[in-house]
Amino acid sequence: MRYEYTAIAAPNRGEKAKDAKTPTDRYALSLTAELNRMAADGWEYVRADVLPSEERSGLTSRTTVYHNLLVFRRELAAATLTAPAPQPEYPVAASPARAPEPSPATPAAAAPQKAEDPAINAARPQPESQGEATPPAPRVPPSND
Question: Where is this region: Disordered (predicted)?
Fold first, then answer.
């Protein structure tokens, strides 16, 4: 038989009731109500545990706090007893990766042109003067005189 378990925090204080006069009676009534609530959902009470928990206290220090827990179990349904599907070693993204989309065809006007192609060189406008271009004048920093 396979079980699933759950743990809940035990009640911290008792509930007021007509028949519960002492604090112990009030606490017992509160605990009974919690056990009955879980039993209505199919949970079977197993035990109560007091477990330590390290919590922050201030900015830099830590303290140990003890929590009272109630442990419950219930049988797993027959449908869930089948072998679980193997889990991947690493988490998988929420949506599957899409295949890359092909890039659209580049228009001929925007396509890069080869300089060696004589048809392109003939269609390209030629500069007015075929002579050597004069380089720009050198920059001279301003003087502080």
Answer: 83-145
